Predict the structure.
Amino acid sequence: MQKRGFVLASVFVLAVFILLIIGVSGVYAQETNGSTTSTTTDTTTTTDTTTRDAGETLTETTPSDSEPSNIPDDSSTISDEKSDDEQTQQESEEEKNAELSVGAGITPDSGLYFVEDQILSRFRDDSGNREKKVAEIKAMVEEGKIDEARRSLEKYRRYADNLENEIDPEKRNEARRSSAAIRNTLRDIEGQIPEGEKDEFVKNVLEKEKSIVTAAEIAGKIKELCESLAKLDPLEYSKVCKTENDAPNWQKKLDKKLTKEQRDEAEKFGKIMSECFKTAGQE
């Protein structure tokens, strides 16, 4: 009987011990699962954070549309290339709208024309006087007075010849403007000039104006050449640029100026060489 009670007690204790083991194992399993879930959540959170940070970094480093680009702007290059053409076009527009700088004033059909011819013309240069004569031609043609217009034309030729021979290279732009104004004026009255007179009043005048502009351009090139030779090769300058008595006044003045500069430079060089010889003798 005692032995049977001992066996039952042992079985009861063993059962309790097994239940305890099972309970502890369950708790441990729950804790392990919770830890794993927490670790997974943390890992996921970390991954999300890293992804978000990477996205922010990518967003920050990716150039936006509003930021300037280092790629050259072709439009500015094209603009530079077109600037010369636009300037030429602008000059053409200015010439197209050019007008005479003087009006007709006293015309050849007036009894006081001698005042214009003998007095007033002295206060203008050849360029201004030739414009004045073209203005007179226009006024006379519009009134149908071709003979009086021819008187002004003859005086125009005289002033135009003088200007062509004496054109100052510094007045090249004015020469182009003035010639354009004369062309525009003749274009306005060409339809009123008799057919047999058009060569005399239009064609010949236009050819003369073209010659004046060409003479101004040539004078400019001569001036540039002589100024360069005066500095680089005085001997060649003396062969090419020395003026004669019939040379234009502007060229005579330029030659006088450049020759004086050469003389001054020669004097300075002579003084320097003299000082060098003196110093060498003392040594």
